[in-house]
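Prompt: For my understanding, could you write out one protein's sequence and C-alpha cells?
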Amino acid sequence: MDGSDDECCYYYDAVDSDGDEEEEEEIIMLDEDDVGLLDGAALPPPEEEVEHRAICWAITKESLAAAQEQDLSMVMNLVNVERHNARALLAHHRWKMERIYDRLDMMGRDALLRDAGVVVLPEKSSSSGSSMAMAKTNPPGSVAVTCNVCFEEYPLGSVSAMDCGHCFCNDCWTEYFAAAVSDGSKQMRCMEVKCTAICDEAVVRLLLHGKHPGAAARLDRRLLEACVEASDAVRWCPSAPHCGRAIRVDGGGGGEERYAEVSCPCGAVFCFRCGGGAHSPCPCPMWDKWGAMRGGGEVDNLKWIVANTKSCPKCSKPIEKNGGCNHVTCTCGQHLCYACGAATGTLYMHICNRYKEEGGGGGVKVEMTAGGRQRLRFMHYYERFEIHTESYKEEQGKLGPAIDALARRLEADATLPWSGTRDARWPSAAHRRLLRCRQVLPRSYVLAYYMFGGGAATRREREEAAAQNRFEDLQGQLEHHVEVLSRTLAAAARPADAAEVVKAKRDADNLARVVEGLCAGMYRCVQDELLPLLVEPMNIAAYHPDGPAMAKEFPPATSVTGGAPPATRH
C-alpha cells in the first residue's frame, strides 16, 4: 500500500520546496474571509449572558462519612429521633435536607415520620434507651424472657428490644441481621410479623460485630454509600478500577447540574446524568444508542462501508492517513480531503460535512434501496466520527509533545523581539482549544445521524430543515477552521525565525478564538433550535470553552447533598 504525504504533520514529513512553503504560508494565514465566516450566532455570548457554571465536588470516603454525620445530627436534633430513624427519614427524602424542612413545616413532626415509615412510640424520645420497651414485654418481677422466634427462655442480658417494644433473643436477632445483610439490605426492620419499625443501628452493629464481623463491615459500607446512591445531586465516579470518590454537582442555574460534564481528580471524564463518557453536544439517549450500535456488532456488519484507506481521485492509488490533519497529499501530487475522498486545492477551502444522497463517482445519482441509503448515511457519519476521533489521538499523542517543546524553546529564546511571543502559554492554549474542538466534532456527527433522518421524532419539519441548515453551516465552518488550526500549530512547531514565530502566534490566537466562537454557536443551535423540536425531551451539557469542570476537593463539615438549614426555618 502506498503511503500519503500528510503535509500538516511536521513530526513525520519533511518541509516542501520553497514554492510549497509559500503556498503553505498562505494556507495558515487567517485572512478576512476566514473571520467573515463568523456571524453573530457563532460568536461567544456576551459575558452577562453566560450561564453560571455548575460547581463540582470530589467526595472521598472520609469526607463522605463526615458529611453524612452532619446530616444525621441535623435531623436527629430537628425532629428529636434516634440515629436509625433519622437515617430512614433522610433516605425517604433522598437525602435532601430542603425537602425535610419543607415537609416539616407543612405536615408537622408526626405526619412527617409516618410518611417516611418511621415508627416511634409516643413515650419514646431520642434520649431514652430500650428499657421502656423492655418493660412493655416483661411482667413485673420477671427475670426471663421468651423469644417468639426460637421459643426459648433467656435472661434479660441475652435479649434485645427495638423501639416498637418487640423483644427477641440476641442469637435470633444476629442471624436475622446477617441474613438481611447477605440479601443486600441496608435497613433492618423488626422481625415481628407486620411490624415495620426500624431496628436500632447501635444494636445491629453490636450483635453483628460479635459473630459476623464481615457482615457488619458490609453493612457499614452500604450505609455510608446509601446517601450517594439515593441522592440526585451525587453519583459515583465511573472510573475502573474505582478511585473511591463520589462527585457532587451544585446547580448552575436552569437545571444544568443534571447534564453537567465532570472531570474527577482521578482523570475520569463523564456525563453526570448518564455516567458515560462526556458526549455533548449529543444528548444521552442518542449517545447510548450509538454506543449500543458500536458495541453490539452492528458496526462489524457494516465494515465494508468503512474503508481503512481512500483512493486518490487522480491516480486511484490507496492512501493511508498518518497524521491528524485531513488535508492529505498523494505521492502523485494530488491534494484531497481524507474525510470524503474528494480532490481539493492546496488552499484546502473544502467543506464536506453535509450528507448528500448521491451514489457513484462524479456526483452521478444512482438508484438505491432504502437499506442502501441507510448504509450510505451511516457511512457518512460513522467515517467522520472515526476520522475526528483518530485525529484527536494524533494531535494529543504526537502534536502535544511537540507543542510542549515549542513552549520550552520560546521561553529560552532571548532573540525574540516581542515579549508577548515569548509567552510560552499561547501554543498550549491553542492546542487545548484544538483538542476540545476535536472532541466536540465526532459527537456532533452522532447527533446529526439520529437527528436528521435517523429516526428522531420531531414536531415541525420546516423548522427542522432551517435548524439543520444552521447546524450544518456551523459544523462545516468549525470543521474547516479546526483543520486550519491543526495545520497552523503543526507548522508553528517546526524550527522558525522570529518573524515566523510572531506570525504563528497571531494566526494561532485568532484561529483559537474563531473555533471557540463556532463551537459555542453550534451548542446554542443544538440547545435552542434542534432539541426543542424533538418529541422526546432531551438536553445537553452547556458549552464551556475549557471542557468538563474539574471537581474540587469537598469541603469538610458540609452536607453531602448540599442541603443547609435555611435562615428562615425554625
Remarks:
- Confidence is low (pLDDT under 50) at residues 1-50, 123-141, 359-367, 563-570.
